[in-house]
Amino acid sequence: MNLFIFNNLNSDKTVKNLLKFKNDADAAAYYKAVRRLIGFSERRLSRGGIVREYIVRAMLEQDGLPELESVRAFLRQDTKLIFDELLSVDWDGLCADKGLPPFSKIDVPPIRTGLGGYTRSIESMMNSSSREALMGAMLAHAEIFGTGKNSAYAALKWENGALRGILNADPITFDDLVGLEHQKKVLIANTESFIAGLPANDVLLTGSSGTGKSSCVKACLNMFKDRGLRLVELKKPDIGELERILSGIKNNMLKYIVFIDDLSFEPDDPGYKTLKVALDGQAESRGGNVLIYATSNRRRLIKETWSDREGGDEIHRSEAISERKSLAERFGINLSFLTPTQKEYLSIVEDMLRRRGIAMTEDIRSSALTWQIQYNGFSGRTAAQFVVSYMSGQK
Predict the structure, then answer these.
(1) Which one, of 240, 232, 323, lies nearest residue 274 by Cα?
(2) Distances (CA, A) of 94 to 22, 187, 326
(3) What is the pTM of this model?
(4) Where are the beta strands (DSSP E) in 319-377?
């Protein structure tokens, strides 16, 4: 095949072996293709034909593709070739004719990437009944999900110098979070504006451990992921890589939240200045499709030392305190998460149990209060841990 846009298929070893098997009845090529498809099956998304899924995803998960709408004439030629030579082929029928096990016998369960709509879109292309239907489905897919190797994932993480998709991302929703009505309202409204292309702020969520900060950010992803929102998890030690990450996702048609969990700095931490520059730069340096959401147990983010409090002179002390306040103030929105009261803690437990079909009783209430004394005090996380323990029969 001679392709214009999806030129990676020209050199793809799996595709080459499939074509050789189809055109020349080459058994050796069949076995090579099977071995490569078995390797691919560990990241398959669908129970449909594995050959068709491999081909469609090899096309659309190629990095560096142009905007497909802008190259329609070339796209038409490519989809014609790919449909005729690969997607319209009865691969299992070919195997049966040669007395070979069908490709459909590769039956590894699909993975979960957090984007059910992405899988359904891929399946629509796999099952296209014509070249025209294939081309239309591809254009619609690219508009909604973008292209590239990470486009299949709702959540990504920065690992070993590259963005990698996260499997089995936390499915938590805002309905799972009891209370926090003000925090949820503000976060949803800000993210809604962001998705709609309107002005939106970076957000700092502060408060004690287990009060729902991270859960709110993940719930935000799950609320908006089917509208083009993606989450990039960045660990605090990797903040120095922030510029590279922003460069990689800048001007992408999708919207990204860079999520930094449990953020804090020592006074001489170089990551402080990197984050400060990113927050100051706004759309000019990082594109209008990126926001930064961070959580912290510290309201001012930078550890305050006794020397800062007792500086040698009033000017030094004032500057040190001002520096510590300035980073937090660069987030447009600061949301505080307070430790739940006993009543709120028990309400969280009751709601979690109700979702599992269990009514709250005085015995359960007493056990929940004993649990928080023995473990981590009043918090949403403690409530969840108690419910897990209760459901497992430990009480």
Answers:
(1) 240
(2) 7, 54, 67
(3) 0.82
(4) 333-337
Q: Are 132 and 47 in contact (CB under 8 A)?
A: no
Q: How far are the Cα atoms of 65, 107, 123, 136, 147 from residue 133, in angstroms, in the given order?
A: 20, 27, 12, 5, 19
Cα 260 to chain center, whole Å? 13
pLDDT at 302: 59
Neighbours of 181 (CB within 10 A): 10
CA angle 85, 91, 97 (to 5 degrees): 115
Q: Which of 58, 37, 41 is nearest to 111 (CA)?
A: 41
- DSSP annotation of 43 reads G
314-338 pLDDT, tens digit per residue, is: 544 555 555 556 777 889 999 999 8
Residues 6+ apart with CB under 8 A from 318: none
Token pair 């930064």 in the structure block, residue: 292
Band of residue 249 on the pLDDT scale cut at 50, 70, 90: confident
Report CA-CA distances (Å) from 206 to 57, 172, 233, 269, 298.
Answer: 40, 20, 17, 20, 6
Q: How far is CA 145 from CA 22, 152, 167, 249, 304, in A?
A: 32, 8, 17, 13, 44
Backbone phi, psi, residue 212, to 5°: 105, 10
As a whole number, mean pLDDT of residues 342-356 equals: 89
Report which listed range, 231-235, 296-300, 386-390, is most confident: 231-235
When pLDDT is cut at 50, 70 and 90, the band that residue 306 belongs to is very low
- Is residue 126 within 8 Å of residue 87, measured between CB atoms? yes
Residue with tokens 């600061």: 334
Query: 310: burial class by Cβ within 10 Å (0-12, 13-18, 19+)?
Result: exposed
256 forms beta bridges with: 230, 290
Q: At what angle do helices 362-374 and 342-354 cross, to 10 degrees?
A: 120
N- to C-terminal Cα separation, the chain: 64
Bridge pairing between strands 255-260 and 162-165: unpaired
Rounded Cα–Cα distance for residues 287 and 249 (Å): 8
> Alpha-carbon distance 277 to 225, whole Å?
27
State the pairing for strand pair 155-159/162-165: antiparallel
For residue 72, give both structure tokens.
């329609």
Cα–Cα distance, 30 to 62 (Å, whole number): 24
Q: Which amino acid, 192?
A: E
